[in-house]
Amino acid sequence: MTTDTGSTSVRRAEIRRGRTEDAARMRALRLEMLADAPLAFLETLADAAARPHNEYAARVAYTSAGPNNAQFVADPGGRLVGHAGGTVTPDEPGLTVIYAVYVTPTWRGSGLLGDLIDGVAAWSRACGRPELLLEVVVGNDRAYRAYQRLGFKDTGVRVPHPKIPALNELQMRRPA
């Protein structure tokens, strides 16, 4: 959706938790995510494309309610343009781990990343988890700077990338 604010147009997208009826659009966005940024996610485009629709639908249904796992989408009406997930960790009950963050290229720089993180943060607080954590591939300076602008701080912790042994990820935290 586009709104006119005088001399400039501002695009808006509703940030909300994914719903079961979003499964096909969420699958399309997932495939875009994996094609655009293959190192940022934990599955390959080929694996995701081979997964049947009913598995996507089951995952969306699982994350559409409850306090343990959620997927938030940016919906301008039509094609989804962003995603951010949140999940619990058994080691730190006051922490939400943010995962699978993505903004489609034509929406980058629009403030959508912050809106998606705010959606996860509000859900995290409502579930009694006051802190957020995310991981960024070391060397992905664009993402690192974007998260810094959103208040995330580098913890100094480095962990091996779960799929690519030659890469490391850095952990960043902020209050929810």
TrEMBL record:
Domain N-acetyltransferase: 13-176
Entry keywords, A to Z: Acyltransferase, Transferase
UniProt key word Acyltransferase: yes
InterPro entries, per database record: Acyl_CoA_acyltransferase, Bact_Acetyltransf, GNAT_dom
Keyword RNA-binding: no
Short name of any one Pfam family annotated for the protein: Acetyltransf_1
PANTHER family the record matches: AMINOALKYLPHOSPHONATE N-ACETYLTRANSFERASE-RELATED-RELATED
Descriptive protein name: GNAT family N-acetyltransferase
